[in-house]
Amino acid sequence: MSTNALTLARPYARAAFAIARGHGRLRPWSSLLGFAAAIAADPQAKQLLGHPGMSNEALVGLLLPAGEVDPNFQQFLSVLADNRRLTVLPDIAALFEQLRREAEGVVKVAVTSATTMTDEELERLAVALRKRFSREVAMSHRVDPDLIGGAIIDAGDVVIDGSLRSKLSRLHTAIAQ
Fold first, then answer.
1. For 16-52, what is each residue's pLDDT tens digit?
2. Which end of the chain is less packed: N or C, by CB atoms within 10 Å?
3. What CATH architecture applies to the domain 3-102?
4. What pTM does this model have?
């Protein structure tokens, strides 16, 4: 996310969050924003979103899923279209998700391990992280063999680097000094 896009997206994300929360529709709006953001991120759709010949109604229609739609969400997209901000929808959606997780008391944790972790290991780690943060944990896992061994746990403001690669690097630095 660029600083400029973040600056543009932040007030819209906050407004979207306030509207969705006020109507008790955080999860549905999360889905709607995710849908619209995925379309807005598509290279072909980006060209349409920036095309001066496209009407705002057509642009909003492009970003809505088929079927019944939340009229407040449709109005939100109309405001974005009026202000030529549809291209920052992916950033708005990301910030909205961050606000939603905070409101729901959920910490997003990315675990990167040198080898595949079993479901049992991931569950034990999730339990330990819930205890440490006193909040629910939304955990993702990926494998990076370059870590050699161990894992890196990234919870935003807190990063726990227990990788063998990092330990070897620190040992190398200590020996070199």
1. 999 999 999 999 999 999 999 999 999 988 888 888 8
2. C
3. Orthogonal Bundle (1.10)
4. 0.67
